[in-house]
């Protein structure tokens, strides 16, 4: 059964973000989110090997208005197209796996930045909240 292309509100990751908007300490929602796959845009300057190598994920880094670096990821193609319509390639990556290898610097993670209930985590928050066993 096909679902409408813009009906991403029913995905477990989207429901977890909605739950976290109400209670940011919802352990069940954090577990669901950490276990979900997200779309990671492949930067235009990434070489072909980075785009297909399952062991390497080239992170797209954008600057927030204050100058802080952030990596945008998305729960669906619809969410990604809403904020980054020019992106032509992406990788589907388990969020928990991405978080377990998160860099130690001040790189934030933004999930569905253009949505009704986005979630942005600091580098420490990514590693502690989403890198679940």
Description:
- The chain has 133 residues and is an alpha+beta fold.
- The protein has a single domain (12-130), classed as Trna Endonuclease, Chain: A, domain 1 (3-Layer(aba) Sandwich).
- It contains 6 helices and 6 strands; from the N terminus they run ααβαββαβαββα.
- The protein has helices at residues 12-22, 27-35, 48-52, 77-83, 95-100, 123-130, and strands at residues 37-41, 62-63, 69-73, 90-94, 108-111, 119-121.
- The strands form 2 sheets. It has a 4-stranded mixed β-sheet. Strands 1-4 form a two-stranded antiparallel sheet.
- It is globular and about 35 Å long.
- The termini are far apart.
Write the SSE topology.
Blueprint: H1 12-22, H2 27-35, E1 37-41, H3 48-52, E2 62-63, E3 69-73, H4 77-83, E4 90-94, H5 95-100, E5 108-111, E6 119-121, H6 123-130
Parallel strand pairs: 3-5
Antiparallel strand pairs: 1-4, 2-3, 5-6
**How many separate domains?**
1
CATH architecture: 3-Layer(aba) Sandwich
Strand order of the largest sheet: 2-3-5-6
**What structural category characterises the helix and strand content?**
alpha+beta
Stretches where pLDDT falls below 50 for ≥5 residues? 1-8
Spatial gap, N to C terminus:
33 Å
Rg, Å, rounded: 14 Å
- Count of discrete alpha- or pi-helical segments spanning 4 or more residues: 6
Hey, roughly how much beta strand do the residues contain?
A: 15-25%
Report the biggest beta sheet as strand number plus sense, adding barrel if it closes. Answer: 4 strands, mixed
Question: What's the overall geometry?
Answer: globular
Identify the CATH class. Alpha Beta
Rounded mean pLDDT score: 81
Number of strands: 6
State the helical fraction: 25-40%
SSE order: HHEHEEHEHEEH
Per CATH, what is the topology?
A: Trna Endonuclease, Chain: A, domain 1
